[in-house]
Amino acid sequence: MERTRWEVHKIKIFFKPDVCIMKLARIIPRKWGTFGGYRYAHNVSTKNSETTPHEAESSIDSVVPKTAPKVGIQEPAPSLKQGSFAKRIFVGDFDTGLLTYPEVLDKERHETLHDMLKPIEDFFEAKVDSRKIDADAKISPALLEGLKELGLFGLQIPQEYGGLGLNATEFARVGELISDGSVAVTLAAHQSIGLKGLLLYGTEEQKQKYLPKLATGETIAAFCLTEPSSGSDAGSVQTRARLSPDGKHWLLTGSKLWISNGGIADFFTVFARTADDNVTDRSTKRITAFAVERGFGGVSNGKPEDKHGIRGSNTTEVFFDNTPVPVENVIGQVGDGFKVAVNILNSGRFSMGSSCAGAMKKMMEYISDHVINRKQFGKPLKDFGLIQEKLARMTIDTYVMESMAYLTAGMLDSGLYEDCAVEAAMVKVMSSEMVWRGVSEAMQIYGGMGYMKEQPFDVALRDVRILQIFEGTNEILRLFIALMGVQSAGKQLKDLVKKLRNPFMYPSVAISKAFQRTRHTRDAPSLNLNLKSFLHPTLTKEADLLEYSVLRLQYAVEIVLERHGSKIIDQQLDLQRFANVAIDIYAMTAVLSRASRSYCIGIRNAESEITIAAAFCQEAHRRVRQNIEELVDGPNCDEYVSDLAKKVVENKGYFCEHPLTRTFW
């Protein structure tokens, strides 16, 4: 049964007495329930006051199945799922439940996880030599066997199929310790995408047949989607699957490019076009996912690719030549392959945050002795302001990556959120760019010494660069984040936008909205979401910065939809700005939620977490303010971008004359 509990935030006494009494008197109503054996906190979402009750109800209807009870109206049952937090902020709908940082592990699971981590950490310290893996361009059989013995090939496979059955939070924590890029990619290609289709869509028969050997690593999996002609456009795959004359097999023909584990895998999740042979209309050709064994025949692979980074991971082209696949090996339904592929990719991105944070922690440990012991101009590097700035930047970025990753993992584990794809994409974009910057800054701290191959920066830089490219390029993911948010907002704002785009037909609506937007035109929205009530009082200023950002995003969405309507889909620079704002809002939410929790329960160094949260929120607020200003004010320099890009294409390169060129003497 759900129960209401009043939670008093404990604070440290450093306020003036009268203010302190007021702060101590602040109590926050929280409703507590359980899901999957865990306690979770949830709050009725906060809408700003400009939204009518009807709009709020429509907002809920758009993300909750029609048959499900509505949040805030009835007690939530374990089956109730909320819509995407990230999509909702585009209409100013902020789920304050996320300001309570998730607590998904009970004492027993926490202790079990702790016991599991030490052997993994010791193994990577003693057995994994990243420089050797990079030089050899392969992971040795002995190292692979060690990974199998640790159970790392079956982390998220349920225990009934021989795996460890880790939830998302536990999986993310283990991912922090997998310190080598090539090993991390090999394991991720196996379980985050290679076999994930079976976990998400597989039949019981398919799971019983394949998962036990996949869990032990006896069979290694690969994910076969990318083709020479289809990169980011996953819907354009050309590999074909046709039914055999007896109707018992699908015959696969085609090739897949840049397949991680392609040369060592015996199980492949393959995506191919299926069609009725009697129908020639291209629009009826659909994509289907298949579980393919190398032993089916007709499966071969090319030689390992010579890559810039993650050189030890096995990346090859994979070929299918009339490969017979039993009809019962379709994953999901015939024609659902695109959905299967997208959901597989979406489900695994969140863990990149914890993996990148783990890499950054290792990097910071490595450089700490250098900044302490290395002296220049008579004093150690640690005393120079510019070095301190780099150390602080790396600390803040690592904290942000961790906070976003574990907040998202907690959302997945709680079972309360039916859609975390946008949040997972945000984690991937933010963490991949932060870890790239962090490794580069670490190298910079070492100066010329850092450019030597004997230092770890060479391998690390090349390994982390791929993170901005695979599992969806960051450009594609930014478009995905923005379009998901704007399209969701568009459905709710459809009638309003129509009226605002036709002010002469609906003058009262236009005039009313103009008055409502008065404060926004001065960049001073009315902060009526009261987010500070859900955080420790020391974070009041930062809570207001978060609230400002949410309300300004809502305002910008209305303005841009009013300006472009459905053509917003073609305004990629504006979509990028929307994505950047939304990512910053989600990051601020994660950081504030975590810092508040740490301070309230007395975590060691909690005061520093408050400092980190304050620093990041101020930076994020400045970025949000700039992006919103550019969205609201109009085209900015976007037309120049388009014109210059066209000139580059027309001239097939840089087109300006050399500065020494003269037209006269």
Automatic annotation (TrEMBL):
Q: Does the keyword Flavoprotein apply?
A: yes
What keywords appear on the UniProt entry? Acetylation, FAD, Flavoprotein, Membrane, Mitochondrion, Mitochondrion inner membrane, Oxidoreductase, Phosphoprotein, Transit peptide
Q: Residue span of the signal peptide, if any?
A: none
Q: Which InterPro entries match?
A: ACAD9/ACADV-like_C (IPR049448), Acyl-CoA_DH_CS (IPR006089), Acyl-CoA_Oxase/DH_mid-dom (IPR006091), AcylCo_DH/oxidase_C (IPR009075), AcylCoA_DH/ox_N (IPR013786)
Residue span, ACAD9/ACADV-like C-terminal domain: 537-654
Q: What is its main location?
A: mitochondrion
According to its UniProt record, which cofactors does this protein need? FAD
What is one term from the GO cellular component aspect held by the record? mitochondrial inner membrane
The reply to whether Ribonucleoprotein figures as a keyword in the UniProt entry is no
Subcellular location per the Swiss-Prot or TrEMBL entry = Mitochondrion inner membrane
Q: Name one GO biological process term.
A: fatty acid metabolic process
A Pfam family annotated for this chain is Acyl-CoA_dh_1
Positions of the Acyl-CoA dehydrogenase/oxidase C-terminal domain: 335-482
Q: The Acyl-CoA dehydrogenase/oxidase N-terminal domain covers which part of the protein?
A: 114-218
Which reaction does this enzyme catalyse, per its entry?
eicosanoyl-CoA + oxidized [electron-transfer flavoprotein] + H(+) = (2E)-eicosenoyl-CoA + reduced [electron-transfer flavoprotein]; octadecanoyl-CoA + oxidized [electron-transfer flavoprotein] + H(+) = (2E)-octadecenoyl-CoA + reduced [electron-transfer flavoprotein]; tetradecanoyl-CoA + oxidized [electron-transfer flavoprotein] + H(+) = (2E)-tetradecenoyl-CoA + reduced [electron-transfer flavoprotein]; oxidized [electron-transfer flavoprotein] + hexadecanoyl-CoA + H(+) = (2E)-hexadecenoyl-CoA + reduced [electron-transfer flavoprotein]
Q: Boundaries of each Acyl-CoA oxidase/dehydrogenase middle domain copy?
A: 222-322
- UniProt GO MF annotations: acyl-CoA dehydrogenase activity; flavin adenine dinucleotide binding
The annotated topology with respect to the bilayer is: Peripheral membrane protein
Q: Of which family is this protein a member? A: Belongs to the acyl-CoA dehydrogenase family.
| PANTHER family (UniProt xref) | ACYL-COA DEHYDROGENASE, COMPLEX I ASSEMBLY FACTOR ACAD9, MITOCHONDRIAL
Q: What is this protein called?
A: Acyl-CoA dehydrogenase
